[in-house]
């Protein structure tokens, strides 16, 4: 089970007796550093979760999964893997939207090239639309978002309906950008691609891998922290991953996928493990598995159309924003104050990172600041001019 069983609430369904007090103290109270069970109180509940029972909350409070539970119950729920809500509504909604958007991508490519999957002029290894089609439907592609001297909007690329090799139908980037195109003399400014790229996927393999991770890892995180906090973490990580990639990845290659957002939710599992170490079963073994999974995920960032900077940026932002919103169990006033201090410190860090990288994207050449950073998401080959194309 990965949710709070509303029918099983031992602490709210019966009044604790003196015998129960002693029994509960011996089992759980010592871990929490507290005495009688009727004196137990979630130290975060008044400040973060409100004073009303969850079932009496209004719709907005339910969305943020607020509720007041005794400290010993929260500890027991954590050990049993029980979260704050039963269903991951946001994950289900996002997954539905992303599958629908991917079907739209295939339809667009099918109308242009005659087949939903691009086989000519080049084969998409992810089994999906052509590069031109991905740009047209909203991939993160810097030339459509700002002036890029190396890749101006007047540069000719294969049209969406081109199937010849070498291409015999070329279109200017200004037309491929779609969304009304970019008029002559107009400065590209399709900033929304930082967001739309999250909902797009490069192919069948790409979306299957991402949706599996989203419906397993991300769904569990939503159950644990509630839909409100999860929503903020998910999009903060996804957008920041695209901002970081826009700064340092190859400017002439489109990037798509929810990987950055998913990596942000993976980062929350690290927040959970490190803050609740003693409540996890075999935490050292879990740490090893999580480390291996992280390494594999970063390795997949070198696949075409997938940006490792989105992975790394999403993970970093997931750690920061996840620390702010994840419901950490504090068993003492000192721990509670320390957690509040850490959360307050995270807020300006998040803001500064966003401001600096967005400003850097629009006002300077990131390659000049970090010429070697591109290799974190690119394997040098002749096809990409050794990560300079």
From TrEMBL:
InterPro entries: Peptidase_S54_rhomboid-like (IPR002610), Peptidase_S54_rhomboid_dom (IPR022764), Rhomboid-like_sf (IPR035952)
Catalysed transformations (reactions): Cleaves type-1 transmembrane domains using a catalytic dyad composed of serine and histidine that are contributed by different transmembrane domains
Major location (coarse): membrane
Membrane-protein topology: Multi-pass membrane protein
GO cellular component: membrane
GO BP annotations, alphabetical order: proteolysis
Swiss-Prot/TrEMBL keywords: Hydrolase, Membrane, Protease, Serine protease, Transmembrane, Transmembrane helix
GO function term, MF aspect, one: serine-type endopeptidase activity
Subcellular compartments: Membrane
Keyword Acyltransferase carried by entry: no
EC number: 3.4.21.105
Transmembrane segments annotated in the record for this chain: 87-107, 194-217, 229-250, 256-275, 287-306, 312-330, 337-357
Bias (Basic and acidic residues): 15-25, 36-50
Pfam hit, one: Rhomboid
Family as reported in the entry's similarity comment: Belongs to the peptidase S54 family.
Reported function: Serine protease involved in intramembrane proteolysis.
Name of the protein: Rhomboid-type serine protease
Organism: Schizopora paradoxa
